[in-house]
Amino acid sequence: MNEKVRFLQGNEACVEGALYAGLRFFAGYPITPSTELAEGLARRLPPIAGRFIQMEDEIGSLCAVLGASLTGLKAMTATSGPGFSLMQEAIGYGVMAEIPCVIVNVQRGGPSTGQPTHVSQGDVQQARWGTHGDHAIVAFTASNVKDVFRMTVEAFNVSESFRTPVILLLDEVVGHMRERLRIPEEGELPVVERLLTQVPQTVDFHPYLPREDGRLPMAHFGGHHRHNVTGLAHNIWGFPADDPASVDRLMHHLVGKIDNRAMEFAHWVDHQADDAEILLISYGASARSALDVVRRFRERGDRVGLLELQTLWPFPAALVRERCAQARRVAVVEMNMGQICREVQRVAQDPDRVYLVNQVDGRLVGPDTINQALRMIQGRGF
Amino acid sequence: MRKEFLFAGSGGQGVITASIIFAEAAALKAGYHVVQSQSYGPEARGGSSSASVVLNTIEVGYPKVIQPQVMICLTQEAFDKFSSGIRPGGLLLSDPFYVRRLGRLDARVRLLPMYEAVRDRVGLPITFNVCVLGALVGLVDVVRPEHVKAVISDRVPARFLDPNLQAFEIGLELAAGAKPIPRLRSGPPPSPPDPVGASCDQGCVPPARLDESTGSR
Amino acid sequence: MATLDYVRRRFLPHIWCPGCGHGTLMATLVRAIEELAIPKDQIVMASGIGCSSRIVGYLDLHTLHTLHGRALAFATGVKMAKPDLHVIVPMGDGDALAIGGNHFIHACARNIDLTAIIMNNQTYGMTGGQVSPMTGHGERATTMPYGNLGQALDVVAVARAAGATYVARSTVYHAPQLKKLLMKAIQHRGFSVVEVLTQCPTYYGRLNQRGDAVEMMTWFKEHAVPVGSDARKDDPARFEVGEFVNVERPEYCASYDEIVTRLKPREDEHA
Question: Which residue in chain C has the smallest CA separation from A63?
């Protein structure tokens, strides 16, 4: 059997993708439905001299990941809703101190303990706004095992390129289902390595001075450039600074480096979306059901298409605005109370033509539900 | 060509493992697009246990079973809970050691004495699930026996390989000699009708609604 | 290397209040590092949030000013990733034992080679004198205006019970002893804890009529007794200083490396 073709769970594919991207540090805490990630990396990291640690909680997990990243290791943690809530303060630290890391959230039903073993997409806006203070964030998602692998690699690439935490929002269905995965050969997918400073030892190094392309070269703990890392507002040396000019520069840099690249970070798949009169917009497991509906309607000659989003944040507003303009009606299919629908309504020229098709009972929204909703939207009755 | 398979039984019977082996053979050896998934929660740890496999010649959309063409029910509880959800005319594989009350069902039912066969001939009841797999492969024309045997060889520890392959062959053998139980096309559905199934908007196999997910982390 | 070479002199004078004991601790810590002759590039210093945490800004090391209570968690990541580095973690008493108490206990239990320094001023100084886990029973704080209902936590007992393999206590008055204890703690292979009593005349001292910095240090002098001394029987306010625990147990990163070495020749498993 070809070792590179495997039959894996989404969570296992995330492990493989992370290792492909060069992951060498994982800290985590057990939580359903993400635990396979920790278990997989507990087995896989020690043989390659990578580092695995189970911490005392999710707060400690992300803090350990940030500490390890500062020494130069590609680092990740994985969790689900309750743990993701606990991580929010440290996510903000990663944003503020510009520390690359990947945070996987295999979403389950919430709020609170919610439905640990059931699917949901309820953490989409928490990923965007969960940590306090104005900031920008990158969040990816995937609807199948192959894309889980690919988006995991991409999460590391963006994180390392732009010194920022990247959130991978999976869901219970995608995390636990098994599909065929061909693990790409080395070099087949791009893998971004961290940009290190070339400044000589004797010259003053500015860890927080962005280059023109927005990237900030790093110097690792243990190297020659000793600098300060803080969650306080800081200057280009990384030392606390609260003068208005420094703070203003910092805030615009932190938000601009992400939000100004919304289309650069945008990943999506068009499923017959180009000529669609009814456009479905979906992501994660619910996009699979939406795909079935597109096929069903197309068989009848109805022009229904699907825009499957793989980048949720920064929201690909230009893309969505353009696709919505081509369609008569837009239906956003998701397993929450409309967390992406509100974004689509925000950017669409005619928000009244944007409908929410959702299911929030912990079960995967199915093709029949979407089908019925579309009949209603079309005025054909229930 | 979407085909749905439901594997249902109790934790410890190896139902989920059987579904994974079957799905892996279909995905990696037979070249189908395949999705396997399983029930999660306390019921997967000792209580009832179920897994679904969906395969297609094109990319699989909805990844779970809606109305399976093939159902494997290995406990009476699984039979009572799921069998009414089978696609009319579908295939239901079961074992008389575990399932005694069949009710009336619009399906091709195959009751094969797989448990007694592995107990008496292999001497290892734990190979039951692989015997079931053999019978399934013999009854449905989806994957070839050698495909499945290759996956078994990959997944089963070497010292248990021979008895498992023997169990697989017994399953094939039982399938070859299986006599169909007549279809009851006009029969009413087995009682009692499952209220959960009736409310399921996909007309799908009712998801388990046991006392699950209480504080499991 | 001269003592001041370890200091980012451009940031002096520091922000601590006149009479605060933290500066004495910082100077003593720098002297300990200097005497051990550890190169600056080989030290990561991770702190939390509070008056104590500002120590990292003044020292010319790899410095990590983290979140309130989380210094040990960040430090654990640093140490696991680069076990060759010395990782020193100065924390306040509230920082280490209230909000960070869970990390503290588990760092002790792991016996990971970090040097935890608890700068115990018995209050939250940065926020203005609230009750801390180290405030004594009946003592005043802005959030215990009628006297503390709780009891001060015994850090030494907690650290010992949780499995720390080096535990010591001193005060900023006993600077020569403190330096020796800090040196031993930094050299110790395993999780080491040094509790340092340091005066906060601004809040704790004022709220509890403890006088100025000199009077508070005099109090440290008069009430500190060597570990195991009987003198505590005469006056319950007396406290022991010195080394309480110094034992060897497998260190976490070393144990991890043993597994890495053991696995190396084996090819990567696959389910």
Answer: C74
Residue C115 has pLDDT above 80, yes or no: yes
Does ipTM come in above 0.95? yes
The pLDDT of residue B78 is above 50: yes
DSSP state of C20: -
- Give the model's confidence band at B198: pLDDT under 50 very low, under 70 low, under 90 confident, else very high: very low
What are the pLDDT digits (tens) for C165-223?
A: 999 999 999 999 999 999 999 999 999 999 999 999 999 999 999 999 999 999 999 99
The number of folded domains in chain A is: 2
Fold of B3-199: Pyruvate-ferredoxin Oxidoreductase; domain 3 (3.40.920)
pLDDT digits (tens, 9 = 90+) for C116-156: 999 999 999 999 999 999 999 999 999 999 999 999 999 99
Distance CA C133, CA C150 (A): 8
State how far the alpha carbon of A362 is from the alpha carbons of A85, A118, A202, B68, in Å.
Answer: 19, 5, 58, 21
Chains in touch with A (3+ beta-carbon pairs under 8 Å) read: B, C
- Nearest Cβ partner of A71 from C81, C256, C268? C81
The residue among B103 and C186 whose pLDDT is bigger is C186
Give the integer Cα–Cα distance in Å for B13 and C63. 56
| Residue A382 CB contacts under 8 Å (≥ 6 apart), including other chains | A372, A375, A376
Contact B202 A7 (CB under 8 A): no
Question: What residues contact B166, with CB distance under 8 A and at least 6 apart?
Answer: B121, B122, B127
Cα C250 to Cα C112, C114, C185: the distances in Å are 9, 13, 16
Chain A residue with the nearest C-alpha to that of C253: A51
Alpha-carbon gap, residue B53 to A178, rounded angstroms: 9
The answer to whether the CB atoms of C78 and A67 lie below 8 A apart is: yes
**Does the beta carbon of C64 lie under 8 angstroms from any beta carbon of chain A?**
yes
Q: Do the chains contact at A116 and B217, CB–CB below 8 Å?
A: yes
Closest CB to C80 among A51, A90, A239: A51
Domain ranges of chain B: 3-199
Distance from CA of B60 to the nearest CA of A (A): 8
Q: How high is the pLDDT of residue A214?
A: 82
Neighbour-count burial for A350-370, b at 16+ CB within 10 Å, e otherwise: eeebbbbbbbeebbbbbbbbb
pTM here is: 0.94
What is the least distance, in Å, from the CA of C264 to any CA of chain A? 6
Task: Judge whether A166 and A138 are in contact, CB under 8 Å.
Answer: yes
Instruction: Tell me if A132 sits within 8 A of A249, measured CB to CB.
Output: no
B161-176 and B145-155 helices cross at what angle (nearest 10)?
160
Count of C-beta atoms within a 10 Å radius of residue A55: 23
Q: What number of CA atoms fall less than 13 Å from residue B75's CA on the CB side?
A: 16
Inter-chain residue contact A68 with C80, CB threshold 8 Å: yes
Vertex A340: Cα angle to A382 and A258 (nearest 5): 160
CB atoms within 10 A of CB B100: 10
**Domain for residue A192, yes or no?**
no
Distance, CA of C242 to CA of C229 (rounded, Å) = 11
Which of B37, B50, B65, B149 would you mutate first to test chain A, the one with the most A CBs within 10 A?
Answer: B37
Q: Is domain C3-263 annotated with CATH 3.90.700.10?
A: no
Q: Which residues of A touch C82 (CB under 8 A)?
A: 71, 221-222
Q: What is the predicted pLDDT for the residue at B205?
A: 32
Q: Are residues A283 and A174 in the same domain?
A: no
Report how far residue A324's alpha carbon sits from residue B155's, in angstroms, rounded to the nearest whole number: 48
Q: Do A179 and B20 touch (CB under 8 A)?
A: no
A288 and A140, same structural domain? no
